[in-house]
Amino acid sequence: SQQGEEDPQALSIQEGENATMNCSYKTSINNLQWYRQNSGRGLVHLILIRSNEREKHSGRLRVTLDTSKKSSSLLITASRAADTASYFCATEDSGAGSYQLTFGKGTKLSVIP
Amino acid sequence: DTGVSQNPRHKITKRGQNVTFRCDPISEHNRLYWYRQTLGQGPEFLTYFQNEAQLEKSRLLSDRFSAERPKGSFSTLEIQRTEQGDSAMYLCASSKDAQETQYFGPGTRLLVL
């Protein structure tokens, strides 16, 4: 079953603008990971944020985590056409002995040149 | 570090046939995961290995599915008597340890006619 819910489901912006995607989840987690997927391809790992962290940065990416609200956000600054892809959040549930990831349905981002 | 590789990348088969997919994880990664992704959805967990031991299987993994990881290196996923509902992208991921980043391969796209 899907745990995470990304919001919005689709987002269209102009090149150079910032893009913000949100993720909500339901259970206690060890960490939350964001991935990018280009059409028909595998998933590329972007950032892992642990449950005791509140914010992480990587290049043009900024991820926040609010465990009290069970939510996370991914901000992409100064977007480029190459950022066009689907973005997924995935949670590693603290109660799952396998440490499997539970994914949402993703946000489809379109960056218009 | 050559990343996670999967073969074949695409497979078309007729209903009732058996298919086998292979995953080569990043070397020295102890944990290996299989996920399945259908169109418009996020990946869903199927099963995972710690070294050569298969430690958890999802309820999605019917009796027609079997996975192995001999010697704790590469893994195979076999689907027997394929059905049209098995059509999906099958993704493999590996991680060094629990609560660490899972790195995904490019996936095997299966189409059952």
Your description of this structure?
The complex is a heterodimer of chains A (113) and B (113). With 113 residues, chain A is mainly beta. Chain A has strands spanning 5-7, 10-14, 19-24, 29-37, 43-50, 55-58, 61-66, 71-76, 85-93, 101-103, 107-112. In chain A, strands 2, 4, 5, 9, 10 and 11 form a six-stranded mixed beta sheet that branches. A five-stranded antiparallel beta sheet of chain A has the order 1-3-8-7-6, with no helix packed on it. Chain A is globular. Chain A starts with a strand and ends with a strand. Chain B is 0% helix and 50% strand. In chain B, the strands form two sheets. In chain B, strands 2, 4, 5, 6, 9, 10 and 11 form a seven-stranded mixed beta sheet that branches. Chain B has a four-stranded antiparallel beta sheet with strand order 1-3-8-7, with no helix packed on it. In chain B, a hairpin with a 6-residue loop joins strand 4 (31-37) and strand 5. The mean pLDDT of chain B is 94. Chains A and B meet through strand 4, strand 5, strand 9 and strand 10 of A and strand 4, strand 5, strand 9 and strand 10 of B.
